[in-house]
């Protein structure tokens, strides 16, 4: 970084974790003013008789007995268990127009919602309403729509399996498959790409595999901020002397070194464990090129070794027995030159060869990846090229090896498993008919992008959101927000206020639900819900805190209330299911046999793992895993001029998805602000931009131009031609049509932009 001092911008020299993490947790707890409540909750997080962390989806250790400290998990618990309340008195004091001017942080920081509320257009305020009246009006509005496909039903990854199952059941009995959900915006490329490659849209490893791998790749994710509990696992891998190879455009501190708060020796001596042995700063959008380069090297090395009388570099026995399609991949790689690969990847041929050599020398390899690989115009193909790499040496379906998509929210994977999908199968139609006696159409519904298009075009008139902050999470707010203002009905089921709640429809309802930290008592007594983590482990979660308000209902109870009001001839016993969540789990098992013996197994310590065929080298109906070709090398083909940079959106350390806990990004040296764009030194110099300059950013994605200003340039260590800014601020640069055509995932991670300084040329840049 230059010597020019910019307020709130400095170098951070420490490791991830350590005393900085402990101090951040203390501040988070103190700021929410419910210390007794929060510390009680923190003692129960991820414990056998406690609740699942409402943060990330990283799995718990099998023993499930020791508290694993996680800074951002503690922030999530404090944020939910806060002593602050957004009561009817608060809404009486503020119009929605006033609240729209508040920051996203300030809105959520007002605290927990306490009463069901309905929007009054004349007063421009939310007013309290009884639950019965709210359900009745919502049911009337949904029944009044000319067709069920004119309603959209969004699901957040915080939703439990039980609530999500009831939700999809209600919506399907209503008559539509419109299920935009948070997976559409993050790992849909995994859900679409991996089944075509290995027969299942989930990862193939367990946490135990990390104790047996002899090489670990980390592609396109930042564990120190987005899933900090993973750092403990990476630390253990590093301590065994196993090479960890990081592939990421930005140098992230959590991938470099970690001081574990669980290990007093490191804390007291202020020492850290190195994480990545090797760090490849691939150019944004250069992942396909890197993967193809590694595979090209492997095929060439294999041919040379076979010619010399060796057994080859590839796992030929595995390939012959378990795969198909290698020859098409071989031809594609033969027609791809090293000059093209190096240009697109932004790495040298020697670097790519070194990464491939490491891979060739290892017998048990795990490849982890995050949204840096999926949120591209060709995110699905990115996922499939990673699968290709793993298949070449038989690194799927054996101990200590496999592919590991690192999901974000705590139950985004589970929601999909229990039916939150816009693409129903005949098996699902048959199972619901057999279990409940009603039919629903076998037509594809709307994903998140298509839902917004339908709302924009007037084809959808209602939106029901099970959690989340859809308007902020989606790209292109200039399209998304005005479209949502035209709706006839919007329903938000939520714990705290956010910006999406301030976009009123003709009728708008804000329905407060229990949080995961709170006791859920129904007719049969205290209830547990279940969640599925990134490695397909299903376990129970039971809150222990008193609810934030006596007027809260659980998510299953809210779904049942809407269902009964909407479906007067329903064939589902909603009251019976809500009265005893064991009955919901029995029904989940009846519809999805993968949950065999659900209620018994989920009561075992640590829960149970769902069957993942590829982990057993069962490749599904095709009988073989498939090598799949990705034409060309451009991860986000845009064309354009040399002055274009490729910008990615990133999360700060003080946020989780769209929730902004504060304005610091400790590991990147940013404090008290989010108005920054990280740029390469040489790119700045070439454009006459100085560190700290106010700049304008113009995107050129999908044939549409979007301009934002009010940001400053910050010199940072990232590859030439690459840039980064925070999400969701950067969403304004992503047109609705800029997405992966296979998965529908918006291209948040690869936006073609130009930048220019707004500095007065007569003022010295310093």
Structure description:
With 766 residues, the chain is α/β, with parallel strands linked by helices. It has 29 helices and 31 strands. Strands 5-4-17-16-15-6 form a six-stranded mixed sheet, with helices on both faces. Strands 24-30-27-29-28-31 form a six-stranded mixed β-barrel. The protein has a five-stranded parallel sheet with strand order 11-8-7-13-14. β18 and β19 form a beta hairpin. The longest helix has 21 residues. The two termini are 14 Å apart.
What's the helix and strand layout?
Blueprint lengths: L15 E2 H15 L2 H10 L26 H10 L4 E2 L1 H6 L2 H5 L3 H6 L2 E2 L3 E4 L4 E4 L2 H14 L6 E5 L5 H14 L13 H11 L16 E5 L3 H4 L3 H10 L4 E4 L9 E3 L4 H6 L3 E2 L3 E3 L6 H21 L8 H7 E2 L1 H9 L3 H8 L3 H13 L3 E5 L1 H4 L4 H14 L9 E4 L6 H6 L8 H11 L11 H9 L5 E5 L3 H4 L3 H8 L4 E6 L12 E6 L8 E2 L2 E2 L2 E4 L4 E5 L13 H12 L7 H6 L1 H11 L6 H4 L6 E2 L15 E2 L18 E6 L4 E2 L2 E2 L15 E4 L1 H6 L7 E6 L6 E10 L6 E5 L24 E7 L9
Parallel strand pairs: 1-9, 2-3, 6-15, 7-8, 7-13, 8-11, 12-23, 13-14, 15-16, 16-17, 24-30, 27-29
Antiparallel strand pairs: 4-5, 4-17, 9-10, 18-19, 20-21, 21-22, 24-31, 25-26, 27-30, 28-29, 28-31
Largest sheet descriptor: 6 strands, mixed
Portion in helices: 25-40%
Q: What strand order characterises the main sheet? A: 5-4-17-16-15-6
Radius of gyration of CA atoms, rounded to a whole number? 25 Å
Question: Any idea what the shape is?
Answer: globular
Mean pLDDT: 92
Number of strands: 31
Distance between the termini: 14 Å
């Amino acid at each position: 970084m230059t010597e020019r001092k910019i307020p709130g911008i400095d170098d951070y020299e420490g490791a991830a974790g350590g005393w900085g993490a402990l101090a951040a947790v203390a501040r988070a707890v103190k700021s929410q003013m419910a210390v007794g409540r929060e510390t009680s909750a923190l003692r129960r997080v991820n414990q056998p008789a406690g609740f699942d962390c409402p943060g990330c989806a990283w799995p718990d250790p099998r023993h499930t007995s020791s508290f694993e400290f996680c800074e951002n998990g503690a922030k999530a618990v404090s944020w939910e268990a806060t002593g602050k309340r957004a009561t009817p008195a608060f809404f009486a004091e503020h119009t929605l127009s006033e609240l729209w001017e508040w920051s996203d942080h300030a809105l959520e920081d007002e605290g927990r919602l306490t009463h069901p509320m309905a929007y009054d257009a004349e007063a421009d305020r939310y007013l309290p309403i009884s639950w019965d009246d709210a359900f009745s009006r919502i049911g009337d509005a949904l029944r009044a729509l000319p067709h069920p496909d004119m309603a959209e039903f969004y699901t957040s990854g915080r939703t439990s399996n039980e609530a999500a199952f009831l939700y999809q059941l209600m919506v399907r009995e209503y008559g539509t498959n419109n299920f935009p959900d948070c997976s559409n915006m993050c790992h849909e490329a995994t859900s679409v790409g991996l089944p075509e490659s290995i027969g299942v849209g989930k990862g193939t490893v367990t946490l135990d595999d990390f104790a047996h791998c002899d090489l670990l790749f980390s592609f396109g994710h930042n564990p120190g901020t987005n899933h900090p509990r993973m750092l403990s696992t990476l630390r253990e891998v590093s301590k065994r002397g196993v090479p960890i190879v990081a592939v990421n455009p930005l140098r992230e501190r959590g991938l470099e070194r970690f001081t574990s708060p669980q290990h007093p020796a490191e804390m007291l001596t202020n020492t850290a464990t190195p994480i990545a042995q090797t760090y490849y700063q691939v150019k944004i959008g250069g992942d396909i090129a890197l993967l193809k380069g590694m595979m090209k090297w492997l095929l060439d090395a294999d041919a040379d070794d076979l010619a010399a009388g060796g057994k080859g570099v590839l796992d030929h026995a595995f390939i012959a027995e378990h795969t198909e399609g290698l020859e098409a991949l071989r031809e594609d790689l033969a027609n791809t030159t090293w000059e093209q690969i190096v240009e697109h990847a932004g790495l040298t041929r020697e670097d790519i060869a070194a990464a491939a050599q490491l891979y060739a020398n290892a017998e048990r390899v795990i490849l982890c990846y995050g949204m840096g690989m999926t949120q591209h115009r060709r995110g699905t193909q990115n996922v499939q090229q990673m699968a290709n790499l793993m298949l070449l040496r038989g690194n799927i379906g054996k101990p200590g090896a496999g592919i590991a998509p690192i999901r974000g929210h705590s139950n985004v994977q589970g929601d999909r498993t229990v039916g939150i999908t816009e693409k129903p199968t005949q098996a699902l139609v048959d199972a619901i008919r057999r279990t409940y006696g009603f039919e629903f159409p076998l037509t594809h519904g709307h994903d998140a992008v298509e839902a917004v298009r339908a709302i924009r075009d007037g084809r959808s008139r209602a939106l029901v959101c099970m959690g989340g902050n859809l308007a902020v999470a989606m790209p292109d707010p200039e399209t998304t927000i005005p479209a949502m203002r035209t709706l006839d009905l919007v329903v938000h089921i939520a714990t705290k206020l956010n910006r999406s709640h301030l976009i009123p429809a003709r009728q708008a309802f804000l329905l407060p639900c229990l949080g995961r930290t709170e006791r859920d008592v129904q007719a049969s007594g205290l209830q547990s819900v279940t969640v599925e983590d990134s490695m397909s482990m299903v376990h129970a979660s039971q809150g222990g805190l008193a609810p934030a308000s006596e007027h809260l209902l659980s998510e299953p109870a809210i779904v049942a209330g809407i269902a009964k009001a909407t479906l007067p001839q329903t064939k589902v016993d909603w009251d019976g299911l809500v009265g005893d969540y064991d009955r919901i789990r029995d029904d989940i098992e009846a519809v999805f046999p993968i949950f065999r013996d659900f209620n018994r197994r989920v009561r075992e310590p640590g829960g149970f793992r769902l069957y993942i065929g590829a982990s057993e080298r069962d490749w599904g109906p095709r009988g073989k895993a498939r090598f799949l070709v990705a034409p060309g090398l451009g991860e986000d083909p845009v064309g354009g001029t040399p002055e274009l940079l490729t910008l990615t959106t990133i999360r700060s350390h003080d946020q989780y998805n769209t929730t902004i806990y504060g304005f610091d990004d400790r590991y990147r040296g940013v404090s008290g602000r989010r108005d920054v764009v990280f740029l390469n030194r040489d790119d700045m110099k070439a454009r006459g931009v100085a560190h700290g300059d106010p700049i304008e950013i113009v995107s050129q994605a999908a044939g549409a131009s979007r301009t934002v200003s009010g940001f400053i340039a910050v010199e940072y260590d990232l590859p030439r031609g690459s840039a980064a800014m925070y999400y969701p601020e950067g969403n304004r640069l992503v047109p609705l049509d800029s997405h992966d055509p296979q998965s529908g995932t918006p291209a948040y991670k690869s936006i073609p932009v130009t930048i220019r300084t707004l500095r007065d040329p007569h003022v010295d840049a310093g």
